[in-house]
Amino acid sequence: MELELLQRQNKMLSYLSSLPRRMLLLHGTENVTEFVLHDLCQCFNFNKAAYFVDNPDFNCTKGVAGFSTEEPFASETIWADPVSFSTHMKQSQFNQRVRGLTRCSVKKDGDSNHAQLAELLAKDLGFNNYAFCSWAMRHENEGFVLYEKASIYDSFADEHLLDGLSLLSFCPIF
Q1: pLDDT tier for residue 8 given thresholds of 50, 70 and 90
Q2: Where are the domains of the chain?
Q3: What H or E segment, with its residue span, contains residue 12?
Q4: pLDDT higher at 96 or 153
Q5: Which of 1, 30, 94, 138 could form a disulfide with 174 if both were Cys (CB 3.0 to 4.6 A apart)?
Q6: Rounded Cα distance, 118 and 124, in Å
Q7: What's the fold here for domain 2-170?
Q8: DSSP per position, 19-59
């Protein structure tokens, strides 16, 4: 059991430590967020995840990217074939649904009721056993990720989740 835990920790560390370098390789690519979200899902063993940005200045919470293991990419590594992965993500129904979602800002109202927002988004996107995470971003924005773990009992990486998801803040939003 301890060996399995060490292997999972090593895999998680490998994903997280390589992401900044990989992000730089795709500098200028509009959908870097999709690449990062994909790897974060692998890292934290999510079945699906949806990333949103809450912008109180525009009174808007907007879907940025979504990934679901139900729509897997055919290649073993997305970074080796970024054009094909980008095409795959444009055709991904789940990603399109996430990107098409817009809600009023929960931060603008001052109550920041993330649990209520998560419930609404989970219903719209067909999440069953979901959880969410939010964090402060530049320009008074707030990042918000709704996710579904492969196993609800897997709490192995929970303490590193916010640090990993915060990497999405460094991706451009188009």
Answers
A1: confident
A2: 2-170
A3: helix 2-25
A4: 96
A5: 30
A6: 10
A7: Beta-Lactamase (3.30.450)
A8: HHHHHHHTTT-TTHHHHHHHHHHHHHTEEEEEEEEEEGGGT
